[in-house]
Every structure is written in structure tokens, then in C-alpha cells.
Write a structure and sequence with these properties.
9 helices; seven-stranded parallel beta sheet; alpha+beta; Immunoglobulin-like; single chain; elongated; Rossmann fold; 3 domains
Length: 551
Amino acid sequence: MIFILVILALIPLTTALAEEKNYLVKFHENKPGTFTTQESSLKKITNEIYLIKDTTEEELANNQEIKYFEESRDYTILENTPWNFLAMGVDFNDIPDNFGEGVKIAVLDTGVNFSLLDLISGPDIINGDGDASDDHGHGTLTAQLLRAPVTNFPLMGSEVYAVKVLDNEGIGQTEDIIAGLDWAIENNMDILSMSFNGPDSFLIKEKIDEAYSNGILLIASAGNSGNETILFPAGYDSVIAAGSINQALEKSSFSSYGEKLELMAPGEGIILTFDGENYFSFEGTSFSSPLVAVIAASLFSENAGTNNVEVRQVLRTTAVDLGEQGRDNFYGYGLASLSTQQINQSDFENLENRVIELENWKTTIIETISGILSDIAVIFSSLNGHESRITTLESQTSSGGNSTSDYWKYLDFRTKKDIACGFGEDNSLELYKMQDLGASCEIASTGNRIKCDCEEVTGTCDIDSPIYCYSWELNRGKINLEVKNTANEDLKINSIEISGCEIYERSSTISEDKKKRFRLNCMDDFVQGNIEISYQDESETQHLVEGTIIV
């Protein structure tokens, strides 16, 4: 609705112009007096103010009866700017008529309702014609954030195209998306808004990269899964992934997040219409994508000759930081915001090459750190094993009562083996303790000669006394299990069960203070499993011990 308000402003008489207009006048005597004009052109507004139609400033300025005069001007109602635009710095009452001028934007969606929205029809990829009318509704909703019904706010100066790549159920095939992208490239679009998600596709990514290299800024909705997964096409490096915030400027619970998230825009409480009469509140990252496109369009328009890489960088640097300081996985760089920042072309020379170099450097650093962390994990694992063995050794003493703690930790395995065999030969170290020191030794006496053979133990077998066991890998999947009887009687092993392994010999009698080796045939990737050993003592009482075997 447009109506005329009449306001008196006290201004001095000015130099006259010949153009005829309508003027408000105030006379010295508060009435026309002998004012010479056609009676039909003089209209009383108040007791003091009159409207004179179709006259000139010169005529009024030369009339001595007139004290003040002022041109009658138009006043209009204020536009009610939705919150989602105000949050991004866009006020419908403060934007020029040419906002977004010279920018070409394509909305890849279900098409639009052209009787409601003043958009240009691109191709209907689904039906193979040139009428991209909307038979679903989703495209009409997303597109009106670029050009609203009736007013065409906010992008009154932009060329906005509807490209139908999704059918009446909101579904499009890989080839439909590729065809839509190809049309945008061939028709020199500046911005693409995509409010759909789908699986990763090499061919779609290839076409998106081609569009980006041809100067198109691509924006897509991050997804509504609410988890740490940015869906495609938003997940591609050449695309700005747009997430959703609410009116409290907090991330929407449904908005997907992650390393690929770049910018945020409102996506809750978005008031839209299908028919221009009934308005409803909608939510989803589908609406965040076109809202980011509005800010991008203003940058393209205000900075003639700029390119998509430069605009993308400015979008990042001018975004309102919402999460942790700097970029983070929940808010990206922040809320896309209208900025008057002018893009300095020289600041962006070779920017793309520098970004690529930085990404390569980042990848190299991450790989290096991962390797270091892996090495540290191995070292700590080894240290933990040695620490346990040293503790056991330090609790033992030689026959002379001297502690071994002073030197044991500095010795290599061969020297440790010699010491362990020496302790075993003179019975100053219990034989089963050798395994705790990292050695499995066989000691035999032949005449005056004592034979001691040791193998390095690499694994453990955590079960209850009086059964002790140790393990070590011979080669892939082939493992030795050594079971030791520390009881003061003979024990009969009835069975041994190990998850993920088969045992060639399951039953055996182990004499007091003796041990028995069992050969295991395990899966190639076996590193740990559950073990159960069933045995009976000399009184034929049955026992079952359980634990874990680690190779």
C-alpha cells in the first residue's frame, strides 16, 4: 500500500526551477489572500497549510504572500525484514534497488512456481524441456530467499535462474545433477545454490571442480542428519558447505557438522509461502544455502571483476565468529554476513596456489604426527612390558642375597638369558619366574654338563595360579603356548580352549614344577583372545581357570 503523508518543513525560499510539481504552502496570513492560481489547483489541508498542484518553484518563490513552501513527496510503509536476513546484516529498508546487480545465480532444485516468483527459467533436466516449473515445492521455497514474491527482495538486481534437476518427489539421478552443472558452466553462472544431498560421485565431483575452475561459486546445504557428516555435494572441496543456526545464533540440532563445514546461515523459523497467500515456518539447511548465496551475490556485485576464489575468502574473513575462536567444526568460519569490504585484487594473486600448498603442508604434517604417535605407542607398550619384568626381577635375589635391580634394566636379552640360566642352574631363581623376565628357558643336566636353552617371550597369559602360561609368535598365525605347573603335585590338563585358535594337543599331564609347550594355529591377525584351561589335581578334583592370552 502506498499513501501520501503531508509534513510541513520550514525552509527558506529558494531559487526557482521551471518543472511543475505539487507543493505544500503556508501563507503569511495563514490564508491565500489574493493568491493568483486556479481555484481547482488549491486544496486546503489544514487551517494553515494548502496543497497547490501543478505549479513551479519559481512561481511560488516570487509570491510575497507565501511564507514557506515544500514539495509534496511519497512516503511508503516500512518493509518487515525477516529475522533470517537481519541476522546477516540485510535490511530490506536499506538495500538499493540494484542490490546484486549483474550477478547470475542458478538454483539447482525442483524448479520454481513462476506465477509466484520472478525468476528466469533454465532447463527442465527431468522432463527434457525449457520449462523448469516446480511440481514439488522445495525449489519454490529455497528460491524465494533470493527473490521474494511481489517485492523481489533482496536480489532485485540479479538474474536468478531455476534449473530443474529434481523430480516431483524431490529426487534426481546422478546424470541429472551433472547435466544441471554443465548447463551452469555453459551459461556463465556466477553462483550455484544446491539444497540437496546424495552419495559421493566421482563424475559429479569432476563436474563441480570444473565449474569451480570456471569461476562459479558453489554453495550447498551441509545436511540435516545432526551428526559429524557433511554430505555431498557440500562435502567436496570446491563447494561451500552451509550449516544452519537458530534465532539465538546457535547451531541447529539437525545441522550436520565436521571438518568440511564452512559457513553458517539461518535455517530455523524461515517464513515462506507456496502460493503467496498462506505462509508457514520451515527449517533445514536447505534454506541456509541460498541465504549464503545472497551475501555472495552482494560481494560479486560490489566488486566488479572479482572471482569466486576471492569472494569465498572474503565470505570467510567477514563471517561473524560464533563458536570457538577461529574456524571450528560446529560453526565453520561463522555466520555469513553482509560486508562493505572492498576486495583488493592484488591481495589475491596466486591465492589458490597458496591454499593448495597449505593443504599439502597440512596433510604432510598430519601424516608425520600420526607416524610419531604410532611410534610412541609402540615404545610405551614395550616399556610397560619391560617395567613389569624388571619389577619381578627386582623382587628376586641371587644366592648371595644381592639384588639384581642395579644392573638388570641395562642388559640386552642375550645377557639376561645367561643370567636367568645361571640363576636356574643353582636354583636361586624359581624356573617359572624366568618367563616374567622375558625368557622361556629349558634347563637339562647331562653328566657334569648343564644345558640351558631360552627363547624370548613376547606375550602374556593372564590366568590364576597354580597354572602359569606364556606365549610368543613363531611366525604368522603360528604361536607357542607354554603352560607351567607351580603346584606341589602333578596336574593333568584336560583341555585348553582359546578363541580364534586351534591347539594340536589339548591334554597332557604336567609334573610338579614342570612346564609343557602347546603349538597353536591361530588366525593370521590374531593378537588377543580368551583362554580356558581345565585340569584335575591328584585327588581328581576338577578345576577351571580362565583368562586372556596376548601375543
